[in-house]
Amino acid sequence: MSADQAASAVVVLPVQAAPADGPVAVRFDNVTLGYDRHPAVHHLDGALAGGSLTAVVGPNGAGKSTLLKSIAGLIKPLGGRIRLGQPRERVAYLPQLSDLDRSFPIGVYDLVAMGLWHRVGVFGRIGRREAGRIEDAIAAVGLTGFERRPIGKLSGGQLQRALFARLLVQDAALIVLDEPFNALDAKTTADLLDLVHRWHREERTVIAALHDLATVEQTFPETLLIAREPVAWGRTASVLTPENLLSARRMIEASDPHARACDRAA
Ligand SMILES: Nc1ncnc2c1ncn2[C@@H]1O[C@H](COP(=O)(O)OP(=O)(O)OP(=O)(O)O)[C@@H](O)[C@H]1O
């Protein structure tokens, strides 16, 4: 079958089932996500296994950010159910850099210290142990010496390093990253990818929206390809086929962003 034929006969492939006896980090039951009752993602069923490292890929407008926000609890499903395998406080979320207000008057040290809020409270005292963790995290991302620098005076790459340091001190079981390497140079990307590898070795669950398929193929064992609904989900090599990528593109081109919820059974 040619790629064109494959795209015109779009089939929603079965999504990944979590291992029957393994831990589950997130489970989706016929989930619909959207804004003002207009669905942006629908028919999402499946699970992220605990300790898995998953890329979410898809064309612009496919619903990647929407999906990640729903896992982080920032938007509620319009339909279906999302269940977490760990308490909400153990979920860390990195928004797209472009969504951040860089005029907020805060320095690198205090930004990184915010990663401890769940443990010490907003006005809690940072003891010697916590201070050591903040300093270690700042060192791990190569920002020692920048502790007092306001975030508005950092480069994009330095800000992303500081945000990764905040994730480090957060010590989350589930880490949700929205386009973490967008517009970063090769050195910064490589350094931050090392931290993703480290989290994976530590058996944390990581899910990240990405556009660079080479990075996905090299680093992410699992991939969810979406185009407002799942196109394929499983081992990266079996998901990122030319046929699936073309299907995703055609599905986005054919979709109506103003449509109401669809009645098709998941
Ligand atoms: N706050 C919002 N209010 C209304 N609609 C929104 C909002 N955020 C996203 N959308 C719509 O939801 C759909 C999915 O958007 P989303 O940002 O999740 O896609 P994406 O795959 O992350 O895209 P990109 O690759 O361009 O970042 C789009 O049609 C978008 O216009």
From TrEMBL:
Protein name: ABC transporter ATP-binding protein
Annotated InterPro entries: AAA+_ATPase (IPR003593), ABC_transporter-like_ATP-bd (IPR003439), ABC_transporter-like_CS (IPR017871), AztA-like (IPR047748), Metal_Ion_Import_ABC (IPR050153), P-loop_NTPase (IPR027417)
GO biological process: zinc ion transport
GO molecular function annotation: ATP binding; ATP hydrolysis activity
Signal peptide: none
Keywords: ATP-binding, Ion transport, Nucleotide-binding, Transport, Zinc, Zinc transport
Domain ABC transporter: 26-254
Family affiliation: Belongs to the ABC transporter superfamily.
